[in-house]
Amino acid sequence: MSDYDAIVVGSGAGGGVAAAVLAQAGKSVLLLERGRALSFEQVGRDHLRNQRLAIYGHNAGPDIEGNPRTLDPASFPMPVGERQGEQRILRPHEPGYQNNAACVGSGTRVYAGQAWRFMPQDFRMASEYGVPAGSSLADWPISYADLLPYYERVEWEIGVCGDHRSMTHLPAYARPYPMPALPLPHKSNVHRRGLDALGWQGLRVPRLINSLPYNGRPACINCQHCVGYACPVDAKNGSHNTTIPRALQSGNCSLRTEVMVERLMCSAGGAVAGVQLITADGLRESISADVVVLSCGAVETARLLLNSATAQEPGGIGNGSDQVGRHLQGHYYPGAVGLFPEQLYDGVGPGCSLATCEFNHGNAGLIGGGMLTDEDIVTPITFWKRDYPPDVPRWGLAAKQFMRNNFRRINDIKGPVQEIPNPDARVQVNPAVRDRYGIPVAHLSGTSHPETVRTASFMRERAIEWLRASGAIKVWGRQPQQYLSGGQHQAGTCRMDEDPAHSVVDNFCRVHSQSNLFVADASPHVTNGGFNPVETIMALAWRTTEHIVANW
Amino acid sequence: MSALFDESQLRCLAALLDTLIPPDDFPGAWQAGVGDYLLRQLQGDLANLQTSYRDFLRCLDAEARCLHKRDFADLSADARSDLLHRIEKQQVTASWTIEPGEFFAQVIEHCGEGFYSDPGNGGNREGIAWQMVGFEVRG
Ligand SMILES: Cc1cc2nc3c(=O)[nH]c(=O)nc-3n(C[C@H](O)[C@H](O)[C@H](O)COP(=O)(O)OP(=O)(O)OC[C@H]3O[C@@H](n4cnc5c(N)ncnc54)[C@H](O)[C@@H]3O)c2cc1C
């Protein structure tokens, strides 16, 4: 008999849903997380070490030391990290590492909680646009209609606020959001003028935030530290305060933190027997289960599969077609910053409130497109580091006075671009470099597809247009370059399809070569939409684990 | 005050930081605590830059003496700015043991970090920089 019915590896967006669905269905579940459970105080408000501005580290993991990755220098335009021969060794806060987070809840502990459904067209990109040379653009094996019931569950059970009537880019909602949209800050009213002048449709950004008391927790207090930080009143809905507590309350789930799963254990005959993990004290344990669900995030799920090679599958579990780790993608996030004659800042957080989906599809000569929104409140140091205009002096009285006179008159417009997958943008493992547990680290190589850069340049122009139409008197922002994308929106490394020759998992996210191994995170995403991905990750994990339960 | 820098290096550092973010009706970098930020970082995340900082300050004083026969800290505010503008363009007269422009670019970054980040990092004393720009923390 196995130790558990199911083991879920990783407690982020997908892992939380998987643990809750399995445990609430009466299965005994072990949820394993390499990071710690972090209190509000532990996440803190360090403006130099957070998941938004990580100059000297992160506030939601992983730790700076002991968690390296390696990078092909050709994947990144700037020299980064420590050089070792032809590769660079990166620590988590160094550019190019592609970090999301490592703690209970992972990114959902500190995210902005933008809660987007992908559009129906996003699931059939190849059919809509054809496949550009050098890309692995493909349709998802499932449609918007297949995910719709699970989108609704995420919206109601995790808790999303928004205005369903404003979501005119999608088929009409059968169920509204359970909570109204957050109040609009002043700047969004200013940006509304721009949309009206341009004739672009505006919509309210749906967010995984309580605008009213919901699920036994209070409403948002409109603080100034949302994205990149933890919520002071617990009004932001992530895995740490929704799915994981529910899994634990069922009495069927145990959560172990600070344990690193090293490899999968395989039994003969195409089934996994469980996992082998290493504790913080360096002890190895083998734990068996009837079902294993991988929810480590797109980079680490691929790494774990590749590190689990067996005699039957010498290239890594599920890697018979050399697909594990390929098609790594995230979101280019082009945009621009605008300086306005009037004050925009009123301190009403979180801030990101108004969006347009005019350009997600139907852009002549482009493949897909993206969404644009205004931004969450930016801290002064983040503005100074990231958004400062290149033609203003960076020191001296003029610099100080620029900050003083303009911090409250500035806002940026930006958004995620639907990336065109490149099969050579990939995760491999590097046995020459080990993490603190002695496990071979992820090696990252390749870059985005040129079509992604083209779309990003186009979207940047639209952001500039929106800012100017809203009254900006000066606009600036970097031109997108080609580099390896992934980061907080990483996806695509265990592609989903019924044909094992081109994919890693089947239509229900089961690894083709194993009868009882599933993936419930962003890895199965064939494409990643022109939207922040978390609602789709949660919805897909819900569908996958419900299927596991139904076919137990 | 510090085991990292002697008295004259500290004077030079204060003058340098106050040239980057000078006092007006709001405090300059030094009074706002950027020095405290930096001293803390030089024993933490930036410990690998201790020697470079000492080199830079020594060369900065040497440069000031070359041009004006005085320590950097004893120059007028305008003369300090002019000198730093030259350093930015790599126009130096003294013999420098550290790449002047490149390191100066890092000092600018560190100074901004100390001034504009949260007071928990040692600078931005009592949130003075946030008061100046109008970043109010209410929740
Ligand atoms: C600051 C920030 C803002 C964001 N804002 C938004 C937003 O507004 N909207 C949106 O849609 N998305 C947002 N995201 C992204 C979102 O958080 C991610 O898309 C999402 O968390 C990914 O889910 P996942 O299940 O794929 O992986 P993750 O949530 O990353 O979960 C993976 C977990 O597995 C653990 N793990 C990995 N390997 C192992 C191992 N071998 N053993 C044990 N544990 C392991 C990791 O520590 C991690 O906790 C944001 C992220 C951040 C950091």
What is shown here, in short?
Chain A is an alpha/beta fold. Chain A is 22% helix and 17% strand.
Can you characterise this structure?
The complex is a heterodimer of chains A (552) and B (139). By secondary structure, chain A is of the alpha/beta class. Chain A contains 11 helices and 18 strands. In chain A, strands 1, 2, 7, 8, 9, 10 and 18 form a 7-stranded mixed sheet that branches. In chain A, strands 6-12-13-14-11-17 form a 6-stranded antiparallel sheet, with helices on one face. In chain A, helix 1 runs parallel beside helix 6 (243-249), helix 1 (13-24) runs parallel beside helix 11 (534-550) and helix 4 (144-159) crosses helix 11 (534-550). The mean pLDDT of chain A is 97. Chain B is built from 6 helices and no strands. In chain B, 40% of the residues are buried. The chains are: A alpha/beta (552), B mainly alpha (139).
Secondary structure elements and their pairing?
The complex is a heterodimer of chains A (552) and B (139).
Chain A: E1 4-9, H1 13-24, E2 29-32, H2 40-43, E3 69-71, E4 82-84, E5 87-90, H3 125-129, H4 144-159, H5 186-198, E6 203-204, H6 243-249, E7 253-256, E8 259-267, E9 271-279, E10 284-294, H7 298-306, E11 335-339, E12 354-356, E13 372-374, H8 380-387, H9 397-406, E14 410-414, E15 426-434, E16 440-445, H10 450-469, E17 474-476, E18 517-519, H11 534-550
Parallel strand pairs in A: 1-2, 1-10, 2-7, 3-16, 10-18
Antiparallel strand pairs in A: 3-5, 4-5, 6-12, 8-9, 9-10, 11-14, 11-17, 12-13, 13-14, 15-16
Chain B: H1 7-20, H2 34-41, H3 50-68, H4 77-88, H5 100-116, H6 128-133
Helix pairs in contact in B: 2-5
The structure holds flavin-adenine dinucleotide.
Flavin-adenine dinucleotide (FAD) binds next to α1, β8, α7 and α11 of chain A.
